[in-house]
């Protein structure tokens, strides 16, 4: 079973490398993001949500009525609005970058927020950074 899962992961990774640069339909990136999300590969999920945004902005007619689910934004419905869909995808991307927590993922979240300049995404990053600072300082005070 582990071998089969490894083959699936390698197949998905190969598919992703073949459809970079937002060349596929938004639905493809959305499905890949959900796959990575289900397998706790949060950096890759964030990257796919971000790529889905780029693809949707290039092909808005193909993004109508798609809902970026994710465990964070499953309840959001975009009512067919392309701008709401892109915003929801960006929110999901930032969420999964922060959930991953590696320096590469945090850098990606900050870069995305810098490009998009959405107040809700800025708030996500600021809240996450505040939580990290608070937990680090409380851990340091317990040690001292």
Explain how this protein is built.
With 144 residues, the protein is mainly α. It has a single domain (2-136), classed as Serine Threonine Protein Phosphatase 5, Tetratricopeptide repeat (Alpha Horseshoe). The protein has 6 helices and no strands. The chain has helices spanning 2-18, 26-38, 42-58, 82-100, 103-116, 119-143. Helix 2 (26-38) runs antiparallel to helix 3 and helix 4 (82-100) runs antiparallel to helix 5 (103-116). The chain is flat, with a radius of gyration of 16 Å. The chain starts with a helix and ends with a helix.
Structural topology:
Elements: H1 2-18, H2 26-38, H3 42-58, H4 82-100, H5 103-116, H6 119-143
Helix pairs in contact: 2-3, 3-4, 3-5, 4-5, 4-6
The helix-and-strand class reads: mainly alpha
CATH topology: Serine Threonine Protein Phosphatase 5, Tetratricopeptide repeat
N→C terminal distance:
47 Å
Percent of residues in helices? over 70%
The largest pleated sheet is described as:
none
The run of helices and strands is HHHHHH
How many β-strand stretches?
A: 0
What is the compact description of this entry?
One of its GO terms (cellular component) is cilium. The chain is an all-alpha fold and 144 residues long.
Q: What are the defining features of this structure?
A:
Serine Threonine Protein Phosphatase 5, Tetratricopeptide repeat; 144 residues
């Amino acid at each position: 079973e582990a071998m089969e899962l490894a083959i699936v992961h390698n197949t998905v990774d190969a598919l992703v490398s073949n459809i970079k640069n937002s060349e596929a339909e938004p639905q493809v990136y959305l499905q890949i993001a959900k796959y990575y999300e289900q397998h706790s590969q949060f950096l890759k999920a964030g990257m796919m949500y971000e790529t889905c945004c780029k693809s949707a902005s290039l092909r808005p007619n193909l993004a109508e009525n798609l809902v970026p689910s994710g465990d964070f934004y499953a309840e959001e419905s975009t009512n067919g609005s392309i701008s709401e869909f892109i915003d929801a995808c960006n929110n999901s991307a930032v969420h999964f970058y922060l959930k991953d927590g590696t320096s590469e993922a945090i850098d990606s979240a900050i870069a995305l927020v810098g490009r998009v300049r959405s107040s809700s995404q800025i708030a996500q990053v600021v809240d996450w950074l505040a939580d990290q600072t608070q937990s680090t300082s409380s851990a340091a005070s317990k040690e001292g």
